[in-house]
Each structure stands twice: as structure tokens, then as C-alpha cells.
Design a protein that fits this description.
Chain A is mainly alpha-helical. Chain A has one domain: Cytochrome C Oxidase, Chain A (Up-down Bundle). Chain A has helices at residues 25-32, 55-86, 95-126, 137-159, 177-206, 216-246, 255-266, 268-289, 296-308, 326-333, 335-361, 370-373, 380-403, 417-446, 453-479, 500-531, 566-591; strands at residues 43-45, 52-54, 448-449, 533-534, 595-596. In chain A, a hairpin with a 6-residue loop joins strand 1 (43-45) and strand 2. Chain B is of the alpha+beta class and 174 residues long. In chain B, the strands form two sheets. Chain B has a seven-stranded mixed β-sheet with strand order 2-3-6-12-11-8-9. A five-stranded mixed β-sheet of chain B has the order 1-10-7-4-5, covered by helices on one side. Classes of the chains: A mainly alpha (597), B alpha+beta (174). Protoporphyrin IX containing FE (HEM) binds next to helix 2, helix 3, helix 14 and helix 16 of chain A.
Chain lengths: 597, 174
């Protein structure tokens, strides 16, 4: 068994180069070129974990991660302007600039920051974790070149004011052709990167660079990659005709058709983000506490549910649309009876449970939550992932399922409740998890220790607090009917109660706080790349890990207790209760409005 | 460990609390799923998506005819139109206004046709916070029964260009 060296200890480390079986000399010879541990020159051994690192992979992970952070910064600057505009008492931007910045924000955050980071995660999951070399440098360059060119094109036309159409660019709104072309380039470039991932998987399997099944994190990344292919194909189907139309070469595509296919891209890509985020949860749980999945079958099965039941994921965006019937809406909004939601509820149990077991095995067994209080809270990767799980589950998940309920959507569609929901999923969930992972990516792959480490320790808390506050502000204001994507509520002021200003203020203050958290993250990370101390030749500086209590031998825990996770059971019980209360409260609210069918 | 290939015998049925949680979560998913058909049959608020293809210009003509036949007054330069109780009513969305001002009666059921002349719009009825998508080329029919009286506001909640936030209309129920 190839052992992951316990973080920052000098513990003995066993290697296993998993050379192919004897007798298959030829396979073995060719296989050498793919096996990282026997690859001369193209790989190194990590000084902290003892894992093999593919130098090509490392190179592209670095570039993709740096570019991701650049786009996060652009999106972040737009974000603060938006938050300060929706905070009606401040109302910063004139209306053209509000919509321009909203377009910029949506694309740089949801598409560029997330996709560039995800490609980096994919490259990591298929090389280091499989002990395999990255399939092709050339393909990686092509992917990167297309994605970057596309992103620069999109941002340029937005700043020129020729694409004030928002992220969704709903027809008949029309942007400059370069806007669509840029998006197509980003999508196809990402597909090329995903191809590199699958090709590496294939080579690793063929030349047996690892034994048995792929690690759970790679499995999760594969689920994300599979969904990404389906997603990006939707992107091509909808963007290519729209591009041709913008060039004047074909007639206008139908706006309803556009909505349906666009959301096949727009929502399905959120499922990519969820799968990638959950893979990062498992990865960080292992890195920070040594957690291992309780039951691999369950975790993997849950990822498979994501792949299988993301059928017509665009449905919950069309719940109050004309031309699509109720049966279609009900079946598809629930992804065939909520089996993908089931998958998230499973991960929401297994991730904390695996940490609980790991902590209890280290001897932290006091009461129900002794394991939790003794967890490495000073480790920013750990705190970021815990906060990500909590925000994603308790706010993002619960609101998402509820607002996506066919009839409840009537009292939510296109109000601020929607951004209130998804800033808890893709920001408080995915983005925060990615930030947490970065606290390991920089020391391990850029080989620099973080500067200002005590600031890094509080960064996830500030960001999480800001996003949570903003999310609540948006959700409450949205419940009072305030529309999303609207520069001002001024002209309809008297339709809302006065309390709406309290909630929009909450949105604004939360936005400022989140912006501070985001800027700290960017400054710390960029500062470390420029000024951080190199850790080449030694393990990375430890962020903090749970102590092994005296006598905490794994074996001292009775066998029958190994699967006991009483703390997690309480936590998921509270979650289910919160879910049910929120869900039925919304049905009650719906029952009060006018009758319609 | 999640970063390493699992043990050979990883394929195992879940045990203990994990197994129970999967069962409970699955049951909850069924409850949530069944709520939707249940409400469809017994609830009063549903979006059935009834709609007909229509040319924007043809829709505008029908709206004009409707206004002409049923106008009862004027409010802020917009005609106030009272459709026959239980009859057909029309609402036109365009950059950046709602046309006309409808006057409805509490407890009566109307077939309200909504469509757009130009871009996509969103019909958001305040303060109830009821929201429906409005698309050009689609005559979206809402079979609607006002259950409260007063003057209501309709705002647009789908982005439709720079004037979007100005797109505010009125609706009266007596
Ligand atoms: C500092 C952090 C952030 C702040 C303060 C912030 C704030 C906002 C605000 C105020 C809006 C406009 C809501 C409206 O009027 O409709 C918005 C929209 C949006 N945000 Fe963020 N945001 C942040 C981070 C992110 C991140 C990290 C992502 C994605 C990963 C993201 C994705 C989006 C999307 C997709 C929209 C909707 C764009 C549209 O309607 O076209 N945001 N955000
Ligand atoms: Cu969605
Ligand atoms: Cu509008």
C-alpha cells in the first residue's frame, strides 16, 4: 500500500512503485514512460507527502491556478461594485455600469475562475493520485491557449460595452459576436483539457501505474469530468447557432429553445462544481485530519448518482415558463425524484463522519463533540472545508431544493432569493472549498510557504461570514419580492415594506465583508508566490494537525465502535429538521398567494 | 484514504448509522417529490405553462382590440381596462412598460394572456411576489384568481436592457 506520509512528521514512509507484474516485460517497459515513480526527469517526490508529482502536470496546474485567481480578482472587483449598488442606500453604479459589471462578474466568477481551477484539480487527480504522467503537454497547451484567448475576448467586449447581456445572454438580447465566440473557445478549451484528463486515466490504467481501483478523489473528479462533457456539449449546441445569428448568417433561434439548452449548460455546470467540490472535501479531510471514507462503495455510489440523475437539469429554471408542461417540470426539476439530492445528503453525512472516525481514532472521544472541538481549527484548509460543508448544506442545499420545487418557484423565480441561494452553493460552497485547497496547493506544488500565516487562518472565517450575511440579505429581500438583476428598486419602492432596506443593507455589508475575505485570499496567495519562503527539500510548514492523544492507538478502539459516529448523527438530524421546516414553511407561504394554474 | 486506491475489498454494503441515514434521506426525497403532484391535484397555485405560439405583432393587435372593447378609465397615461368577470384578459410587456392597467374583481377567475413585443421579461406581481416568465412569441396563459383587493405593482424581473428597473406597472383588484 502506498502510504500518504502523515503531514509534517518524519514518520517512516513506505514506497511502492507498483511495477507491473513480472513476465510482462514489454508492457512494463512502455509503462515506464507513464509510471511517475520510474520516470526519470519528468517527476519528483513530494517533500511533504512522499507522493510522486508529475512536472508537466505541476506546470499546468500552476498556470491554471494562477489564472483562476486572476479571474477571481476581476470578478471580485466587480462583486464589490454590485454589492454597493444593490445596497440601495449607497447605490454606487449608474445603471449601464451595473449591468456591465454584472455581466463581468457572472462570467469571470462562475465560468473562468471555476473552470480554470477545475482543470487544475483534474490534472492533479489524474497524475499524482494515479502515479501517472500527464498524457500530453501539447494538448494541455492547446486547452490553456483556447481558454485564455476566449476569456480575454469576452472580458474585452464586455468592457467595450458591446455585451451588456448578462451571463445568460437570453435571446433576443444580442451581444457582439466576439462574446459568443469567446465563450465557445473557453468551453471547447475546457473540453480539450478534460480530454487530457481522460487520456491520462486511460494510460494509467493501461500501463498499470496504480493497483486496483482509482482513489476516491480521482473517482469524484472523473464524475465531474463526465458531467462536464455533457454540459459543454450543451454549451456548443446553444452558443454556435447564437454566434451564427449574431453574425447575421442564420435566423433567430427560438427564445424558449435557447433557455432550455442554455440551462443545460448553465445548471449542469453547477453539478460539475458540486462534484469537484465534494472531491475537494474528501481530499482536504484526508490532508488535514487523515480521514478516510467509512465506506468507499457509498461515497462512489453517490458520485454515480450525480452522473446518472442530472437529466434535464435546466428544468428548475423553467418552472414558471410558458410552453413546458407541469409533468415535465415536476419530473425534471427533481432530477427524477431527487436522487442527485440524495447523493449530496449522503456526502453530507460521510464527510463529517469520516473526520469524526479519524479524530476518535486519534483518541478524541470525549462526549458527542469532543472530536469536533479538538479538530485542527487553526488550519485554514480545514476551517474552509468545514464552513463550505455547512454553508453548502444548510443554506445552499436547503434553499436550492426548496426554490426548485415546481410550485414554490412561483414565489421565488428571478427574485433576489435566487442569487441568495447560489452564493451559498457556488461561493460559500465551491469557492470556499477551492480556497481551502489552495492553502495546500501553493506549499505543495509551488513549493512556497504562506506568508502572514495568522491572517490566512482567519481568512476563511471572514469570507464565510460575509457570504452568509449577504446570502441572508438577498434571500430576505427576495422574499419581499425584490428582483434580481435590477440596478435599483426605486421606481417600485412603495410596493415593498420599509424592512426591505434592512435586508439590502445586510446584502451590502455582507458583500463588503466577503470582498475583504476574497481580497485577503488573493493577496495572501499572490504575495506568497512572490515573497513566500521556498520549502524545497523539506516538508511544508504545518498548518496545524490534530494531536494524537496518549494511548490513541487505532487498535484501542473496539472493533464494534469503529463505525459509531454519534456526533455526525446529531448534526445530520439537525440538518434534516432545518430542511423540513424551511421546506414546509415555503409551502405555507405559497398557499397564501392568489390562485393560479 | 481518499487519495489512494482503496483496499481490494472496498465493495461493501453500508452499515450502522450510515445505512439508516441513506434510508431516511431517500424517504425524504420521496416526500419532496410527491408533494409536487399532490399540490398539482389539490393545491391552488400551479404553473402549468399553458401557452400558444403567437407572432408579437398579432398579439399586440389582440391587446389593442381588448383595450378598445373594455377600457373603463385612465391612470398615469395608461388605459385602465376591466375585462368581463371570468373572461379573457391581456397584458403586454415591452421595453419598458406593462400595458394596459388591468382592473379585476376579487374571487373571479380570468384567463390572463401575457406576452412580450420584444425581449424576454419577467412578470412579478407585488407584494404577493408571484413571478412568471414572459417570452416574445409565446402567449402565456395564466388562469388566475385574485384573492385580495387593492392596487398591486407589476415589476419586470428579467433583464431587458438599461431601462429594465423602470419597467413598473399597476394592477387593480376590487
Ligand atoms: C465577494 C464575493 C461576492 C460578492 C460580494 C458577490 C455579489 C454579487 C451580487 C451583488 C450580485 C448581483 C445580484 C443581482 O442583483 O442579481 C451577484 C451576482 C452573481 N454572482 Fe456574485 N458575489 C460574490 C462572489 C461570487 C462568486 C465567487 C461567484 C461564482 C463562483 C459568483 C457568482 C455570481 C453569479 C453567477 C451572479 C449572477 C449573475 C447574473 O445574474 O447574470 N459570485 N454577486
Ligand atoms: Cu440551476
Ligand atoms: Cu426587464
Amino acid at each position: 500500500m502506498r502510504g500518504l506520509r502523515d503531514m509534517n512528521t518524519t514518520a517512516e514512509f513506505e514506497t511502492n512503485t507498483s511495477e507491473g507484474a513480472p513476465g510482462k516485460a514489454e508492457t512494463q517497459d512502455k509503462g515506464r514512460g507513464w509510471n511517475l515513480r520510474s520516470l526519470v526527469g519528468g517527476s519528483r517526490t513530494c517533500d511533504t507527502t512522499g507522493m510522486p508529482v508529475c512536472l508537466d502536470g505541476q506546470f499546468f496546474i500552476r498556470i491554471n491556478a494562477v489564472l483562476a485567481v486572476v479571474f477571481l480578482l476581476i470578478g471580485g472587483v466587480a462583486a464589490i461594485l454590485l454589492a454597493l449598488t444593490r445596497w440601495e442606500a449607497v447605490h454606487l453604479l449608474p445603471r449601464e455600469w451595473f449591468y456591465r459589471m454584472l455581466t463581468l462578474h457572472g462570467l469571470n466568477m462562475l465560468i473562468f475562475w471555476i473552470l480554470f481551477f477545475e482543470v487544475a484539480v483534474l490534472y492533479f487527480a489524474c497524475t499524482t493520485l494515479l502515479n501517472a504522467r500527464l498524457y500530453s503537454r501539447k494538448v494541455a497547451w492547446v486547452s490553456l491557449g483556447m481558454m485564455l484567448t476566449g476569456a480575454v475576448m469576452v472580458n474585452t467586449v464586455i468592457f467595450q460595452g458591446k455585451a451588456d447581456v448578462l451571463l445568460t445572454s437570453y435571446l433576443p438580447l444580442l451581444a457582439h459576436p466576439a462574446f459568443y465566440l469567446g465563450i465557445i473557445l473557453v468551453a471547447v478549451g475546457t473540453l480539450v483539457g478534460v480530454f487530457n484528463f481522460f487520456a491520462t486515466l486511460y494510460m494509467a490504467r493501461k500501463y498499470k501505474t496504480y493497483e486496483g481501483s482509482v482513489p476516491l478523489v480521482t473517482f469524484g473528479a472523473t464524475a465531474a469530468a463526465i458531467i462536464a462533457v455533457v454540459t459543454l456539449l450543451h454549451g456548443a449546441i446553444v452558443m454556435i447557432p447564437t454566434f451564427l445569428y449574431s453574425m447575421g448568417w442564420i435566423g433567430q433561434p427560438d427564445p424558449m429553445w435557447y433557455r432550455m439548452i442554455w440551462w443545460g449548460l448553465g445548471h449542469q455546470s453547477q453539478q460539475v462544481n458540486v462534484a469537484a467540490m465534494v472531491a475537494v472535501w474528501y481530499m482536504v479531510a484526508t490532508l488535514t485530519t487523515g480521514a478516510k471514507p467509512l465506506n468507499e462503495t457509498v461515497c462512489r455510489g453517490a458520485f454515480v448518482l450525480y452522473i446518472l440523475f442530472i437529466n434535464i437539469a435546466s428544468a428548475h429554471h423553467l418552472l414558471v415558463d410558458p410552453g413546458v408542461g407541469a409533468t415535465w417540470k415536476i419530473w425534471n426539476t427533481s432530477y427524477a425524484m431527487y436522487l442527485a439530492v440524495l447523493a449530496s445528503m449522503i456526502h453530507g453525512f460521510t464527510v463529517p463522519a469520516s473526520v469524526e472516525v479519524a479524530m476518535r481514532n486519534k483518541g478524541h472521544r470525549k462526549g458527542l463533540f469532543g472530536w469536533l472541538t479538538a479538530a485542527p481549527w487553526r488550519n485554514p484548509a480545514f476551517s474552509a472545508v468545514v464552513l463550505s460543508v455547512v454553508i453548502f448544506g444548510f443554506i445552499g442545499g436547503i434553499t436550492g431544493v426548496t426554490l426548485g420545487t415546481q410550485q414554490i418557484n412561483i414565489i421565488a423565480h428571478n427574485t433576489l432569493r435566487i442569487p441568495g441561494h447560489f452564493h451559498a452553493t457556488v461561493v460559500g460552497g465551491t469557492t470556499l472549498a477551492f480556497m481551502g485547497l489552495t492553502y495546500y496547493v501553493v506549499p505543495l506544488l509551488f513549493r512556497k510557504d504562506y506568508i502572514l500565516r495568522s491572517v490566512a487562518r482567519v481568512q476563511p472565517w471572514i469570507f464565510a461570514a460575509g457570504i452568509t450575511l449577504m446570502s441572508f440579505g438577498k434571500s430576505f429581500a427576495g422574499s419581499m419580492g425584490v428582483a434580481r438583476r435590477t440596478s435599483t428598486i426605486g421606481p417600485a419602492e412603495e410596493a415593498y415594506g420599509a424592512a426591505v432596506h434592512v435586508f439590502l443593507g445586510m446584502l451590502g455589508i455582507g458583500g463588503v465583508l466577503a470582498f475583504i475575505g476574497l481580497m485577503l485570499f488573493v493577496l495572501l496567495t499572490v504575495g506568497t508566490l512572490l515573497l513566500g519562503k521556498s520549502n524545497v527539500g523539506r516538508p511544508m510548514a504545518c498548518w496545524g494537525k490534530p494531536a494524537d492523544l496518549e494511548g490513541a492507538d487505532m487498535r484501542s478502539r473496539p472493533e464494534h465502535e469503529e463505525h459509531k459516529t454519534p456526533g455526525t448523527v446529531i448534526l445530520v438530524g439537525v440538518f434534516l429538521l432545518a430542511f423540513a421546516v424551511y421546506y414546509f414553511a415555503n409551502w405555507a407561504a405559497l398557499a397564501d398567494v392568489w390562485h393560479v394554474r | 484514504m481518499s487519495l489512494e486506491p482503496p483496499k481490494k475489498d472496498w465493495f461493501q454494503a453500508p452499515k450502522g448509522a450510515e445505512r439508516v441515514w441513506i434510508g431516511i434521506a431517500l424517504a425524504w426525497c420521496f416526500v419532496m417529490f410527491l408533494m409536487m403532484p399532490y399540490w398539482h391535484l389539490f393545491g391552488k397555485q400551479n404553473s402549468t405553462g399553458e401557452a400558444y405560439k403567437v407572432e408579437p405583432r398579432a398579439f399586440q393587435e389582440r391587446v389593442e382590440a381588448f383595450v378598445e372593447a373594455n377600457q373603463v378609465g385612465e391612470l398615469d397615461g395608461q388605459p385602465v381596462v376591466e375585462p368581463p368577470p371570468g373572461g379573457e384578459a391581456y397584458l403586454l410587456a415591452r421595453m419598458w412598460s406593462w400595458y394596459p392597467v388591468l382592473k379585476l374583481r376579487q374571487g373571479e377567475t380570468y384567463r390572463l394572456h401575457v406576452s412580450s413585443l420584444d425581449l424576454q421579461h419577467g412578470m412579478s406581481l407585488l407584494p404577493m411576489n408571484m413571478n412568471f416568465q414572459v417570452l416574445p412569441g409565446y402567449d402565456h396563459v395564466l388562469t388566475i384568481t385574485p384573492t385580495s383587493t387593492g392596487t398591486f405593482t407589476i415589476v419586470c424581473n428579467e433583464f431587458c436592457g438599461v431601462g429594465h428597473s423602470m419597467m413598473v406597472g399597476k394592477l387593480i383588484v376590487e
